[in-house]
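Open question from group meeting: does this chain pack into something compact, or does most of it stay loose? Before anyone orders reagents, we agreed to write out a predicted structure and look at it together. Recording both the input and the output here so the notebook holds the full record.
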Amino acid sequence: MSDLYTRFASGLLFPLHERLKRHRTVEVRRELERTQWLSPQALGEYQQARLARFIRNAYRRVLYVRQLFDAHGLTPGDVQAVEDLPRLPLMDKATIRANTEQLKATDAQGLARFNTGGSSGEPLVFFIGKERVSHDVAAKWRATRWWGVDIGDREIVVWGSPIELGAQDRVRALRDALLRTKLIPAFELSAAKLDGFIDEMRRFRPRMLFGYPSSLALIARHAEAAGVRLDELGIRVAFVTSERLYDHQREAIERVFGCPVANGYGGRDAGFIAHACPEGRMHLTAEDIVVEIVDDAGKPLPTGQVGEIVVTHLATPDFPFIRYRTGDVGAIDPDPCPCGRGLPVLGRLDGRTTDFIVAVDGTVMHGLALIYVLRDIEAVDQFQIVQESLSETRVRIVAHAGLPDSTDAEIRTAFQGRLGADVRIVVERVDAIPRERSGKYRYVISKVRHDLTGTCGLIEEMS
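Structure tokens returned:
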């Protein structure tokens, strides 16, 4: 049961905040809470109607879409159902980079520049409008409420994005205070900082946690090793996202914090794709997102088979993502969820993950702390970071022609600022980055083992 302040925050403060930002979040969330109980057949019809409308509007408003349809001899009437989508080619990051301006709707207003976190090794700049933001925030809000918590309940966020961490101005700080949210930076997780985070959790007594599974699991293991109880704080749920959730991480978080773990899947580019309900099943946001599972050739696979996850976001054609390749692997579960929601279930998710990096002084930091250095260099198309030892880290980059030689020195300086001034940073410019044996890229590889006491050692054999 939410307390009086939570009801005030979720019913008045946050809606007012969204209205001032000209977002329709409240209206969209209410609609999503209605449609989630539709039967699978009715929900499929609802999605199909939205898809047909989206395609018509995208063809009319977006130059890239119009040229794409014309080049394939198609009209909007030829793509009216999910089964028709394979008539269109897949879209990837290279497609968006090459057509960024043509992907903006001719009448789009208030588009904001966004970029992906870069954990895929291929950072991407794209644009999103207020309608798209409204739908993604509403979908996340709906999933939050599945767990008996709401906006305004005390929340600790363990996060590392510079978009979030760099926005702590007075207005943002006031908003977080009013909504009872505390932000803990996930980049640097030394033993001393972990002690401070644990003390902060005990003082704040959150009802929910949100963050990277690797970071929450590390905090949990540190608290357990120190003999500090965190399962008495009244935490209802730990929301995790942005990395693959491993069983040992789930077990550690649930054991130490005394609450269930709710996994979420999505991104700034692809949208809020799926989230776990209290039954533990990952529900797709089917009202807003069409999910296809495709093989290596881009052909759709039957329900239950494993392949690449491809999404089409239906919220708005302001900057459309149509058959967008996520680079993640998963499968649709043919069985419905016992929770009663008609939303389809993502039965398997083998997403990307990033490793921790260890500084020369023993500080453990999230791999994203280094990824963001490379992500913001526009001419860098791909990269791989390999921490060979505490004294040497290797950086491989695939870049456009014309990248200044001085960029290498800038990378070395930035990395040394995080890892240690005497750490050798080897920057290698390569034509391509090889895949793992699994067929996927691995962009952060640390061969340095760490434990909760801060001691480190070389990992003999990488998994």
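Observations to bring back to the group:
The two ends are 44 Å apart (CA to CA).
The chain has three domains: 4-134+267-350, 148-259, 356-458.
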